[in-house]
Structure formats: structure tokens, C-alpha cells
Amino acid sequence: MSRRGKPPLPPQPPGRPVVGNLLDMPPVRPWEWFVKCSQELGSDVLYINLAGAGLIILNSYEAAIDLLDKRSGIYSDRSQSVLVDDLAGFGYLLSRREYGDAWRERRRMFHEHLRVSKSNIYEGKILEQVRRTVLQIVRRSPDDVQDIFRHMTGGIAVSLAYGLPIQVKDDPSVTFSEGVNTAVNVIKPAEVFIVNHFPFLKYVPAWFPGAGFKRRALKLGSFSFQFREKLFAEAQDYLRTEHAAESLTSRALDGMRASGTFNLDAIKDTAAVIFAAGSETTYTTLTLWIRAMLVHPDIQGQLHQELDSVLGDRLPEFSDLKNLPLLEASVMESIRLYTTLPSGVPHASTKDDVYRGYFIPKGIAIIPNAWAMLHNEKDYPEPLTYKPSRFIKDGAIDEDVLDPRKMAFGFGRRICAGAHIANAALLMSAATVMLLFDIQKSNEDDEISMDAEPGNFFRPIPYKCAFKVRNKVAESIIENLENSLF
Ligand code: HEM
């Protein structure tokens, strides 16, 4: 790309000849390295050179809003990835689509059926799954707890997207989605950008030494087709039965029948993204909150008090959530401290631009480094401490403290389409679980690692915990639930 007569690129950490910053950018927790570079260079906007492939890193909320939100007309594209979209075959997902008509059509479809004002559709499905989960927790071994919650978020996604029921244990869709997400998580970010920059790398034979990126991507390729087709076909069959339930698929099909214009691909792509983008992210965020509760029994005590005084001897409904500020703050603080997608999802620009005197080239990937924004001392004093009270003032959520969800769910026109659904699922799960249970270590001597698995997601290192029914009131609520659900 010719840069003659253009302003300078944003500050770049010192690099090496040819490879630039490639060997300096750590494959694990690169978001922390971006912060270190910002501190050294005195700039919250950085340029990183990975062997010629450029990246722009936004390390502050202000810069992310300035570019991705206020200038969203030119910062709403996604870099099409040879590895993820082409070789692994996920380019059809709404979240991976380039900014254009096909993306717009799918985003509109999502909005039409699952926007905030359609809460009557998604809240009922969330409530049902959360309450079924309570019964699983009391019936099954403590060792199954994480699997139980994975089935809960999978169940919410499958029922919203397809109206299909899932098994409470060993459901093939959930196992399948977990496999996909684990495989996606091991794709290294640097590989994605490098293979984009040198697309001929996709022709390197998979057996070739150093072509691990291709082997991993091809393994995913076999999943991606099934991911789109399998559940959609099952949903169509199920819709012909007496059990048929409302879902995005059923409503979109009804709409198309009424208008006489069919675009089944659009339904498949939009339904698939609910599982792909919504299930594992919500599950991971929830297990990070459970882990925070496990190591902060004092905060659990405060939440128990709040829940007992608001709910007494009944289960929470959605209308109760606004009266549970401490519970909400405990979830917000967990999202802040352990954000699930620490370096967000990259956007791409569709035009050359200049920001604060720096040149931002057309087509470059822009990384909103949520981790940097959520750990800065100015907005969040003692940023490494888990402290829900930072969000509370006079017994309510303090509107003056920057809400971490504004960063954790992304920015601008590509902001998470399901943030309101994730929020509803997280708060309802947290309120229900905390009302009924004490979350404790399985064994007093267990060491709980606060670290995450290596990868693009911040997934906690698996931990063990026990959910102990809190008291007689909780026992009787659970007994009533058994009778009402079955
Ligand atoms: C705690 C759970 C979740 C987190 C942390 C999360 C986070 C994100 C982030 C960071 C993005 C990228 C935004 C950007 O490009 O700036 C995103 C995109 C997206 N999310 Fe979520 N998400 C969650 C749950 C969900 C759920 C439950 C759904 C669906 C019901 C969903 C649907 C989507 C979709 C469709 C996109 C793609 C938007 C687009 O490219 O236009 N997400 N999410």
C-alpha cells in the first residue's frame, strides 16, 4: 500500500526487520502486551506489524467510541479471514459477514424476531431453562455442574433459534458446539492475520511442517457445514409435529410464507449465529461469575441478604431484577474483571481515514482491546480487585461508573446483537442460583486457579464446586419446582 504524502501510522512498538512485531506479540494474552506497549509509547492507539500484516489496536473506550461508534459508517466491516471464513468455512455466519446487504438482511432478521421489545419470547425460554437447571443441580453430581450450565445456555440458544428441545445431559448439539468452540479457541490470532496477508499460505499442504494452522482450520471445516444445516433440518421436521414451538426459524419461515419471498440461507445463517455466538460466550461468562462467587463467600452473603429481602420464599421473575442492584453489580464486576472476549472481535475499515493525526488505512483490522478498557485505573480504581460495590451508590446502580457491558459486548453497528438476551440469561441464572444455593469448594483444600485457558476466549481453567441447598425455604421452593415442571 502506498503511503506517500499520508500522515504517519499510529505509534508502533519497535519491531524487527521483515517480521515486524510478529515475534514480540505473545500468542497467549496478547491483550496485556497491547497495554504494555501503550504505556511505553504513551498512546492508546497503536499500529502493530505482523510480518507486513497491519493491525490497529484501540486501548481506550474513548478511541473505540470515536472510531467504531461515531464513525461506524466506515468501521463496521469484518476482515474476511482466509483461515476462519474460507478454510474453516464459517464465512456464512452473520457475525463473520462483510458489511453489506447480506449482513444487513440477517441482522434485520435477528432484530425483527429477538429485539429487546420481544422479551416475551426470549424471557420465557430463559426462565424455563434456568429452572430446569436448578433441578439438574440438585439431582446430579457436583462434578457435573459445568456441564449442566453448558447445557442450559445451549438449551436457551437452540430453543430461541430452532424451537428444539435438548437433552439435559450429553445432548449432541451441545457437545458438538463445545467441540467447535474449543477448536476455534486454538486458532492463533497472529495466524489469522498472517494467512490473510499471504493468502497463498492456504495452498500449503496440511501435512507440511508448520502448517498446523491449516490442519486446525480444515478440522473446523467439517463442523461448519453441519453447524448450519443439521439443526435447521431438524427444526423443519420438528415444526411438522404437534410439539412445534415458536423460534426465530418458525417465525422467519412464517414471514416468508406470508410474503411469498423465500431466502432459506438467510434463516440458516441467522439461526446458526445464535448458537455460535451466544451459547459458549454466555456459558463462559456465567462460569466466571460462579468462580468469583466461589472465592468470595463474603459477597455471596451480601447477595443472599438482598435476595431474601426482595424475594422471600419465591423464585425470581424478570420484573424482580431491577430490585437486585447488588446482584447485578456482582455480574457487572465479573464481566469487567474477567471479560470473556478480552480483545473483542476485530472490525475492519472500508475507507482510508485519519484519527488524531494518524493514518488508518482502508481494510486494516481494528482490535478494540476490551481488556485494556476494563482494567484501567481511572474508571476502575484497584482494577485487579473483584469489588461489586464500585457500581453501587445509595443502594442503586451508580450511573456515573462506566458500565463494563458497554465494552464487553463490542461497539457500533457490529455490537453484539444478543447482548440483551445474554444479560437477561446471566442475571436470571445468577438470581435463581444465589437464592437457592451456597456455592462452595468441593473439597476445602482445592486450589481454585483464577487464570484462563490459553486462547482467544477467556475460559476459566476448569474448577470443581458444590452447590449446597441453603435452607428450608430453598428446599421447599425446589420441591414446588419439581412438582410444577414435571
Ligand atoms: C455474555 C455473552 C456474550 C458476550 C460477551 C458477547 C460478546 C460479543 C462481542 C464482543 C461481539 C462483537 C461485537 C463487535 O464486533 O464489536 C458479539 C457479536 C455478536 N453476538 Fe454476542 N456476546 C454474547 C452473547 C450473545 C448472545 C446470547 C447472542 C444471541 C442470542 C449473541 C449474538 C451475537 C451476534 C449475532 C453477533 C454478531 C454481530 C455482527 O457482527 O453484526 N451474542 N458478541
From TrEMBL:
Q: Where does this protein act, in terms of pathway?
A: Secondary metabolite biosynthesis
Compositionally biased tracts (Pro residues): 7-16
Q: Which cofactors does this gene product need?
A: heme
Record: residues binding heme? C416
Q: Which GO terms fall under molecular function for this chain's record?
A: heme binding; iron ion binding; monooxygenase activity; oxidoreductase activity, acting on paired donors, with incorporation or reduction of molecular oxygen
Q: Name one Pfam family in it.
A: p450
Region (Disordered) residue ranges read 1-20
Kindly give the InterPro entries that the UniProt entry links to this protein: Cyt_P450, Cyt_P450_CS, Cyt_P450_E_grp-I, Cyt_P450_sf, Cytochrome_P450_fung
Keywords assigned: Heme, Iron, Metal-binding, Monooxygenase, Oxidoreductase
Highest taxon in the source lineage: Eukaryota
Entry's Gene3D superfamilies?
Cytochrome P450 (1.10.630.10)
Similarity-based family:
Belongs to the cytochrome P450 family.
Protein name (record)? Cytochrome P450
